[in-house]
Specification:
mainly alpha
Amino acid sequence: MAGKLTLPKICESFGIFFLIWTVRVLCLSGFPPAGQSLWIQQLLAELLKGILWIGFAFYMIQRYHTRLWLKPQKMLLHPIATRSLVLPAALFVLYFLVGNAVRNGAVRMNPDFHPSMLIGTVLAAGIFEEFLFRGWFYNACASVMERSFANYLSSAFFILIHYPGWLYTGCSLEVILGRSIGIYVLGLIFGWSFRRSRSIWPPVFLHMLWNLLSITIGV
């Protein structure tokens, strides 16, 4: 028996995963090794990420599946409500199109885009990150507190997990603060769609859409 699910246990699980991910960023930054094609590098990198993120999410969800706000089967199979998708998806597209046009004088594609980025930045990030942060952290928090506060807390966790990568790559404090605000807002939107739809798939789709627009159009 896993016992009662409590806020300290949820925070402890985040602390454990944060350490796991920090070790991955700091100690396994050379994986996959250079000299391979971009496709192979992306596949290997996302395979390792999937083992860590989906593996941890699956373990925690299975351990506390009877205690969660949304049971795994319902989260995976609940009919998707389009109202949880249409408005945020439209706002995402509008934001990128207008921002890109204002910056460049017309909508232009990102010259640095490579199709291999679709593997990690779009598919893997959308699935792995949402299953962990909405499927587990939001879901667990919503079982011990009001769902709005669960969204606030799980979105804060969502910010923090990006810090090891940002710090490792030498991002300035100004950049980190700006990205933190953006990530927090996105986390709230993904959490809102999860709560409204009672399904993991709307936040997965919205996460994928945001990242797709980021790498192909950007602002």
